[in-house]
Amino acid sequence: MKHYAIENDAPVDLEKMKQDGFMPENEYRSANANLVLACHDVFIKYADGILLVKRKTKPAINVWWPLGGRILKGFSNEESLSKRVESECGLKLTNIQEIGCSRVILGTDPFGHGKGVDAIAVVFYAESIGNLNLDQFHFDPQIITPATYTEEFRETLHPYVRDYMDIAIAKL
User: Of 147, 106, 97, 145, whose CA–CA distance to 125 is shortest?
Assistant: First the structure.
């Protein structure tokens, strides 16, 4: 994905735009209910496989999912993704490669507003450095190898996860 941080033939000062951390919950709740969100997810090579985790919160609660989330304002996709992954699991990302972009629409939402979640997700594959240490929002990490990525397991995945796992597994 190309980034165009330019206006009137001058570079945009991204430092002024950076949003490091979370917006106030009431504002995010409103945005979540009324906007298409900009997110990123990453299929991480860890050990000899691809890391999938389960989420403790909606949406996509208790299903296999890659790490990621909302893109932080003022950061490149790669910087934002790296910050998010390090906070979610302690891993540092290397060799980050964009592998696709999808619209992900889920019927549940984390705030109970009843409008679900609608997001554009830029999807990445990356390698990792460090030891896995999940935060309080994720559990049951699984390292899926080509040998364990059976058709039976594949069919249990959400179609979004399945489509990008096919790409990630092929990169191992």
Answer: 97
Domains in the chain, CATH or no CATH each:
25-171 (3.90.79.10)
pLDDT at 1: 84
Secondary structure of the chain in the HEC alphabet?
CCCCCEECCEECCHHHHCCCCCCCHHHHHHHHHHCCEEEEEEEEEECCEEEEEEECCCCCECCEECEEEECCCCCCHHHHHHHHHHHHHCCEEEEEEEEEEEEEEECCCCCCCCCCEEEEEEEEEEEEECCCCCCCCEEEEEEECCCCCCHHHHCCCCHHHHHHHHHHHHHC
Average pLDDT, the chain: 95
Per-residue confidence (pLDDT) for residue 55, from 0 to 100: 96
